[in-house]
From TrEMBL:
It comes from the Eukaryota. Its main location: mitochondrion. Residues 104-244 form the Histidine kinase/HSP90-like ATPase domain. It is found in: Mitochondrion matrix. GO terms for biological process: regulation of glucose metabolic process. Pfam families: HATPase_c (PF02518). Gene3D superfamilies: Histidine kinase-like ATPase, C-terminal domain. This is Protein-serine/threonine kinase. GO terms for cellular component: mitochondrial matrix. One of its GO terms (molecular function) is ATP binding.
């Protein structure tokens, strides 16, 4: 069901975006003569646009991570009344020039959710060690979150590592479930959704409990995956793998139970 809905929405948004671009170019007088050709490879356009409809042909993943980092840091700085840049640092290393063909919105959702969880529990673990108080949060030292990027000719990999205390075995067993014993408390938050504005930065404490499972759905839709490895009482390593070339057949027919 989820895969089918994502597929329909993706097709609809791509069609609308391409139509708007076509009409805009038509009104401005653009045509095929605006494109130059490579003499050695006449079938390849020299100045192909980086964004075609909703598809980014060379999405710089480090820039996406930086954008998501800024959003997540702003959320938690507001939540805990932290000064700017006093939230846990995110260190990006590895192949920072890596790129892939993708729908940037979907990739941003995945990275945002994983980073949000890492930062949430990085802060929570420090608060727990200090008696749960955060009046003097400015004086607390947070371990940085490390994001490592690597790529092959066909695959891009992202590892997000934190020292937020890890995941207990009981919770880990239910990690990819939308509704479980651990997540029952989040169901009560559905009644509060109408009180929220439709923006990602609203009320970080109002969790619905399906950010990580939905991220896995998006990754699998594009032929990738997310795997999470926990070291209890220490931290978590989340591995995101995605195809780079945009030539992997989507998985709209995959049932949710395969998660």
């Amino acid at each position: 069901m989820l895969m089918t809905r994502i597929s329909r929405r993706t097709l609809a948004e791509q069609h609308i975006a391409l139509t708007r671009t076509f009409m805009k170019d038509l009104e401005s007088g653009k045509n095929e003569e605006n494109f130059s050709f490579d003499r050695e490879h006449p079938d390849v356009l020299d100045n192909r646009p980086l964004i075609v409809g909703k598809v980014h042909t060379k999405c710089q993943i480090a820039q996406v991570i930086q954008k998501c980092t800024s959003q997540v840091q702003s959320i938690f700085e507001e939540r805990y009344s932290l000064k700017h840049n006093n939230s846990p640092k995110v260190i990006i290393d590895g192949d920072t020039t890596a790129n892939l063909m993708c729908l940037a919105d979907h990739i941003e959702y995945i990275i945002f959710e994983v980073l949000k969880n890492s930062m949430k529990y990085t802060i929570a673990s420090v608060l727990e060690k200090n008696g749960g108080l955060y009046r003097n949060l400015e004086d607390l030292k947070f371990n940085p979150i490390h994001v490592t990027i690597s790529q092959t000719k066909t695959t891009l990999s992202i590892r997000i590592s934190d020292r937020g205390g890890g995941i207990s075995p009981e919770v880990y067993k239910q990690l990819w479930n939308y509704c479980s014993e651990h997540k029952l408390k989040y169901l009560l938050n559905f009644n509060k959704i109408k009180q929220m504005e439709a923006k990602v930065a609203d009320n970080i404490s109002l969790s619905l409990g399906f950010g990580l499972p939905m991220s896995k759905v998006y990754a699998k839709y594009w032929g990738g995956d997310i795997k999470v490895y926990s070291t209890p009482e220490f931290g978590v390593d989340a591995y995101i793998t995605l195809p780079r070339l945009g030539n992997v057949v989507e998985n709209p027919a995959m049932e949710d139970y395969t998660l």
